[in-house]
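Tutorial, part two.
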Amino acid sequence: MTEQLPEQSSGTPRHPAQSESDRQETVRQAPEQQGPEREQPHAGVVADPGPAAAPVDRAGEPATPADRPDAAELEDRWRRAAADLDNMRKRFTREVGRERAAERARVAAAFLPVLDTIDLALEHAGADPKSIIEGIRGVRDQAVAILARLGYSRQDEAGVPFDPARHEVVGVVEPDAAGAPPGAVVTVVRPGYGAPEQQLRPAAVTVAQSSG
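Running the prediction step on this input gives:
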């Protein structure tokens, strides 16, 4: 007769029953199999944030030492900037010199008619001596007009109140003898030119003595 093998049921094989002591051992080993617990920081202790983030370049990629300029490149940049500054300073100096020369030329050209008038007065001095006086007066008027166009008008008014910004006292007279009110300009000894904020020189004047 053929020996019949015991039938094996499909599914998970059954394990023999565990004893109570074996189950307790399994329970005790379970926490160890889950791995060590993460240690919690103590109160008042700041956790280490880890290594600092590496610097990034403009493209958003971390900058490497090869991307940073070395000492030679920095020195070259500094020398280039210093050379540009020196060239700018020299160019500014040349431009200021040209402006000053142009201004001197304009002022000199403005006085050329004065020289022409003097030449005409000298040419006619032999025929009529009075023409010299007229020539000198004409030269004076031309010079005054030129200074006025340049912004320096003539200041030679008498009888006006004394102004320390416009006048320079060279003498003091009695009000009764001068026939002027106290503190007024009696005579102009030397005219001034220009306003107080832009003045070539103040007018030299005599002033009536003020009371007190």
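The longest helix spans residues 71-110. In part three we will examine how such features are distributed along the chain.
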